[in-house]
Amino acid sequence: MNRDYDVIIIGAGHNGMTAAGYLSRAGKKVLVVERNAKVGGMTTSGFMIPEAPNHMVTPCAIEIIYLRQTGVIEDLELAKHGLRMIEPDPPYAYLHPDGSSICLFRDPKRTAEDIARIHPADGKAYLKFMEVLNALYEIGSPMMALDQGRPQPKVLWQMVKALVRNRKLRSELEAITSSTSDQVACEWFEHPATIAYLTGIASGAGPIDQDGNAAAYTMISMLHRIGTGKPIGSLQALSDAFASSIKASGATIMVNASVAEIIVENGETRGVRLEDGKVIGSKVVVASCDPKLAYQMVTPGGIERRLMQRMDHAPMARDNAAPFLANVAISKPLTLKRHQDLRHDDADLTKAVGMIGLVEDVRESFWAARRGEIPARHCLSVTPTSNIDSSQVPPGEAVAYIYLPSIAVKLRDGEWNQERKDYAMQTIMAQVNEFYDGFDAEVGRFVESPIDRQKRVNITNGCVTHIDFAASRSGLKRPAYGLGGPKPVVPGFFLGGASIHPGGGVTGLPGKITSDRVKHYLKKNP
Ligand SMILES: Cc1cc2nc3c(=O)[nH]c(=O)nc-3n(C[C@H](O)[C@H](O)[C@H](O)COP(=O)(O)OP(=O)(O)OC[C@H]3O[C@@H](n4cnc5c(N)ncnc54)[C@H](O)[C@@H]3O)c2cc1C
Predict the structure, then answer these.
(1) 8-state DSSP, 115
(2) 324-335: per-residue pLDDT in tens?
(3) Contact indicator for 85, 64 with CB cutoff of 8 Å
(4) Cβ of 229 below 6 Å from ligand 1
C-alpha cells in the first residue's frame, strides 16, 4: 500500500484542524478527511432556517474561551486568515424572575458588588470564593496544556509554585474538587439568585449533583480572566480561518469524505478506506471524531479485544443528559426591557448571554433527563447573537441562540421526533418569553435534539465532550485507563479530538497535544 501521506486526520473539527496545522507547519504531508460538506464539526454555522434564509444559525459552540489562552490562534495565524472577535463585557448575566440580575463582568470586584446589591453577604463571599477558584485555575491551567505522558519540567515547576503559593487554601481546594457544584453553591452562598447564577454556570460541565463536578467553577475564574470571544460572522468564521491557515501551510482538506475503515495490517496502521471504497495510505491516522466509532472502524482484530471493550464502556452522556439547542429567527430586534430597566448601571444586558433558571430548575433538568422526561421548566441560556454581531441577520432583525445544558438523550415514551421537539420548544419559549421581548415576531427556527446532533456530527448520544468529563477520565485516563496515550494503542493510530486530555470545549489542546505525539512518533519511526 502506498503511503500517500505522512498523516491522515479524520474529522475537520477544530481539533483535527489544529493537529493538521501544527503537523503541516512541521513539514509533514497531511490530509484531513471530513464526512460533512464543510469544515467545523461542532464549531460550524450556516443559514439553516428555510423561512429565514439570511439569519445565521449556530448549531453547536457559540463562543471561544480557552482557545484564546493556548497560543493556537497565534501559532496558526488565524487572525491573518480572517478571524476577528467581539468580546462583550459582561459576557454573561443571570436573570432572576423578579427582574433583578447578576452580571458576570470581566472585573470580579464589579461582579461581587453586583451580587452584594442583591445580598451583601453573598457579595463578600464571592470575593473569597474567587480566591479559591483563582488558586484552582493557577494550579490546573498548566496541567490542561500538558501531555501528562511527557511532563515538561517547566510546567511542573509552574504548578508546584502555584501549589506552594496557595497552600493556605489547601482544605478549601480539596473540598471543592471533591464536592458537587450544587453543594458548593449552597454552602458558600445564601440568596437564590446567587445560587442559580453559580449552578447555571456549572451545569455546562454536566450534572450538578456529581461528586467532583464543583471543579467546574474554575470556569468562573477563566471567564473573569479571559472573557469570551464571539467570532465576527459566527463560529464558521473560526473554522474557515483554521481551514485557510492549514491549507496555506500545505495540508489538504477533503470534504464529503466519510471514513469507513482505519486500516491496520500486521499490527501497523496503513491508512483509511472511505465509504466510497477509495483507499488512502499513510504512516499515521489521527481520529479526532467519536473515539468509540473510531475504534470500531479499525480493521477487525487490529486492536486487542480487552481494549475494544474498555473503549466501548467509556461514558458518553451516561446520565442520559446532553444539550438541546435552538436558534430562533425574528423579524424585529430582541430586547430585555424589564431587567434592563431595573439595572442601576450602564451594563448592557441585551449583549450578554442571559442565564435563566432557578437552582430547582437546574436540578430538575438533570433529574428529568435521567427519567427520560421533558420537564416543564428548564435551566437555559439565551445568546442574543445578532445584538452582539449584527452582521449575522438582515438589518433590524434578530436571531437568538437558546442553549439547554441538559435534556434527555433517550426519552422514556419513544423517540425524539418533531412532535416532541415542538413540545420541548413550547415549554422553552414560555419560559424565555417571561424575560425577553421580540419572539412574537418569530419567522422560523432551527431545533436540534441530542439525537439530531448525533446524526449531524456523528457523535454517540450527541455528547459534546465526546467522552464525559470526570476526574477519573482526565489526563492519560481520558478516554479510559490505558487509552489516553502518549503511546498509540496500535503503532500509527492516535486519538486527537475532545475524547483525549484535556477534553471538550473549543481549546485546540487535544489537537495540539496530538500533533506533538505524532511528531515524536514519526521521528522514532521514520
Ligand atoms: C450545543 C453545543 C454548544 C457548545 N458550546 C460551546 C461553546 O460555546 N464554547 C466551547 O468552548 N465549547 C462549546 N461546545 C463544545 C465544543 O464545541 C466541542 O467540545 C468541540 O468543538 C469538539 O471539537 P473536536 O474537534 O474535538 O470534535 P468535533 O467538532 O466533533 O469534530 C469531529 C469531526 O469529525 C467528523 N467525523 C465524524 N465521523 C467521521 C468519519 N467517519 N469520517 C470523517 N469525518 C468524520 C465530524 O463530522 C466532525 O467534523 C458546545 C458543543 C455543543 C454541541
Answers:
(1) H
(2) 999 999 999 999
(3) yes
(4) no
Q: Is any ligand 1 atom within 6 A of the Cβ of residue 393? A: no
5-37+255-315+463-524 homologous superfamily: FAD/NAD(P)-binding domain (3.50.50.60)
Spans of all domains in the chain: 5-37+255-315+463-524, 109-226, 317-457
Please provide the size of the chain in residues: 526
Question: What single letter denotes the amino acid at residue 232?
Answer: I
Q: How many CB atoms lie within 10 A of CB 255?
A: 14
Phi first, then psi, for residue 153 (nearest 5°) are -50, -35
Which atom in ligand 1 lies closest to the alpha carbon of residue 17?
25
pLDDT at 526: 84
Q: Which residue has its alpha carbon closest to ligand 1 atom 18?
A: 505
Confirm or reject: Cβ of 11 under 6 Å from ligand 1.
yes
Residue 519 CB coordination number (10 Å):
18
Tell me the C-alpha to C-alpha distance, in Å, between residue 26 and each of 246, 281, 314.
11, 20, 33
Q: Mutation test of ligand 1: which of 14, 289, 355, 409 has the most ligand atoms closer than 8 Å to its C-beta?
A: 289
d(CA 149, CA 369): 36
Predicted local confidence at residue 150, as pLDDT: 86
Closest-CA residue, ligand 1 atom 5, reads 61
Residue 405 Cα distances to 29, 361, 432, 464, angstroms:
39, 12, 15, 10
Answer yes or no: is the C-beta of 43 below 6 A from any ligand 1 atom.
yes
Tens-place pLDDT, residues 245-260: 999 999 999 999 999 9
The H-or-E segment that residue 126 falls in is: helix 120-144
**Which of 45, 58, 60, 451 has the most ligand 1 atoms within 8 A of CB, as the residue to mutate?**
60
Ligand 1 atom nearest residue 294's Cα? 41
Whether the CB of 17 sits within 6 Å of ligand 1:
no
